[in-house]
Amino acid sequence: MIAVKNLQKRFRLDNKTIKENRKKDPNSLDPREDGHWFNAVKDVSFSCEKGKVLGLLGPNGAGKTTSLRMLSTALQPTSGQIIINEQDVVADPLVMRKSIGFLSGTTSLYHRLTVRENVKYFGRLHGMTEEQLNEQCEKIFDLLDIQSFADKKADSLSTGMKQRANIARTVIHSPEVIVLDEPTTGLDVISAKTILDFIESYKNSNIPVIFSTHHLHEVERLCDSVVMIDEGVTKFSGALDEFKALEPNGNLYDVFVNLVSPRTQDNKEVV
Amino acid sequence: MLKVYLKELLELTRDKKTLIFTILLPILVIPVIMIGFGALSAKIANKAVNENLNYTVIGQSYYPELSKALADNTTLVFKALDKNVTAEQAIKNETIRFAIIIPDDTPFKLTQGLTAEIEILYNDSSTTSRIIFRRVESSLETLEDDLANKRISALGLSQEQGEGLIEPIKLIKNSTANKRESIGEKIGGFLPYILILLALSGAMYPAIDLGVGEKERGTLETLLLTPIPRFQIVFAKFLVIFTTSFLAVFLSLLSFALIITVFGPMMFASIGNDGNEAMTEVLNSFATISILDILLMFLMLVPTAAIFASLLLSVSIYARTFKEAQTYMSPLMMISFLPVVLAILPGVKLDWVWASVPLTNVALAIKEIFKGTIDYNMLFVIFGSTTLVAGALLYLCSWWFQREQVLFRN
Fold first, then answer.
1. Which 3 state secondary structure label does DSSP give A98?
2. Which residue in B29, B20, B218 sits closest to A108, CA to CA?
3. CB of B14 within 8 Å of any CB in chain A?
4. What secondary structure letter does DSSP report for B81?
5. Residue among B294, B305, B303 nearest B196 (CA)
């Protein structure tokens, strides 16, 4: 189980941004800007049970990626708690990394290595033996339909193939939780379907999956629960049915738009 | 850490740019340039020694014997100038290479036993001008000797007394420096410059690739999320850059040694006997360099390569993009070379103060090792201070690597 409580992350603004902000109308500034600081995530809380899929929603710049990066230990929270299977992630990130499989939205592969070499390399870094690696590779490569290009160098692959390889790399060490940041963005229908099927295969397992997305049909298909973030704050956290019930017509698009702040809507950064 | 090191090394060996800069450049390109440059220099020198030189003499009638002495040299070809063309113009438009101008008071000075001042007009800015001057001078040597002997006889002096008259005091050069020291002083000045340049260029591309390259490609974040302490990741990357840097120096020294022993004699032989003698002298001097000295030179380059590896990795990690990293590299190269240039300046010698200045100390030490005049106690200070700087830079690099502001700058 994953539990995130009152997560907060602030970054120091560079001098150029501070100077530019001083010239702007204070009302036009992002409410998260606070003098020399930018509160990318102000207060985010959610939880996800084992075998469930949680969809993380929010407009661009809402704080989704920052939240997921804290969850994956890439960033250290300013305050708040992240608990995975009753263990504090913030207190011991090095140990907890073994339990997390994180796919960043900007990740890529080592392009001079083959898919197999890429995946095995990360498995080795997680302390897996060659035997475990071979066994796990075969299993994941079959699930993600990678076998046909497993021994091709990463720079010769299509975007969809690369993303499938990235996901294989994310789960090679059999993590206890899986966190995926926009895993289907920019993919064709077939590649996206393979990835969604793969996420679905974790349902009813003992592994919780969190994934952020802008595609509401993916949420409808896969998610058991939803958390929606806007301007660094949790706007909704609960079951998918409860989320849909926020609008009489149950349309996810309408629910999403109505939860987003007027300022964000004015900036047309929705979905 | 070893897993990261081996993977980075494997990836680099699959990269053409790294192979070119780290392996091919030191092994092939530099030797090819050196051989090519040597062969070209030899060809130019040969041409300047043997080619026919057109010349003219102004005021021939004042000293016909001089004109005859020049004419006796078959490689000097007399050319009469048109009346409306001056000697300067003829040299400028390359009709002639030099002109001998004999003043009208020459017969008087010769009969009175005075010094006749004969002018040679030539283009001194040419690279082979010294050779031209030497050829003219040697053509007139016999004439000059005959004239001197006649004057000595006229004074009723013996040959020895005559020589004493011409040169009352003769300063005989007798250097306490042995051949190795003397050659080391000449070659040893630029050798560290080349070695340090190679260490830097060998580290540069891998540093960019392993730092900002990984950041830009999006693989760094994933690597940071593995259960490997960040210091170990930094250290593995540092070791890879250090390996390529040191490999570049090692391979170039190896190929340099091969060139000197295999191609060197051929190159020098093409110049003639003088070249052969010079080559033998250089080889004999090199033969006195012991294995220990060579190992010491390598030992000096270990912390040097470490300094460059950690410095370049820090810069590479800080940069947002490949392009930004490249813009930092030029000033960094200039700053890195300042201490090396200091070592070439006259008066800068290896003492306890300079031994503690990083890079300058290594450049000075390599020169001293090459000359065979190194104070071995000094090496401890040099190695210690350079290692200290390399360690501090590695610590900075590791600290840099922990910072979110640096890692997620873009």
1. helix
2. B218
3. yes
4. P
5. B305
Give residue limits of the domains in chain B: 2-44+179-407, 51-139
Structure tokens at B213: 């390259």
Best A104, A155, A170, A179 member to test B by mutation, with max B CBs in 10 Å, is: A104
pLDDT in tens, A84-136: 998 999 898 888 999 999 998 888 899 899 999 999 999 999 999 999 999 99
Q: Which residue of B15, B228, B405 is in closest CB contact with A125? A: B228
A180 and A192 in contact (C-beta within 8 Å)? no
Give the residue from B192, B200, B406, B217 showing the smallest Cα distance to B319. Answer: B406
Angle among Cα B95, B99, B100 to the nearest 5 degrees reads 160
* Top-confidence range, A18-27, A223-232, B153-162: A223-232
How far is residue A269's CA from residue A260's CA, in Å, rounded to a whole number? Answer: 10
- The residues spanned by each domain of chain A are 2-266
The answer to whether residue A123 neighbours chain B at the CB level (below 8 Å) is no
pTM for this entry: 0.77
Phi, psi dihedral angles at A88 (to 5 degrees): -80, 115
Quick one: CATH architecture of B51-139?
3-Layer(aba) Sandwich (3.40)
Most distant CA pair in chain B, distance: 100
A168-191: per-residue pLDDT in tens? Answer: 999 999 999 999 999 988 888 888
A97 touches chain B (CB under 8 A): yes
Decide if domain A2-266 falls under CATH 3.40.50.1100: no
Q: Is B75 helix (H, G, I), strand (E, B) or coil?
A: coil
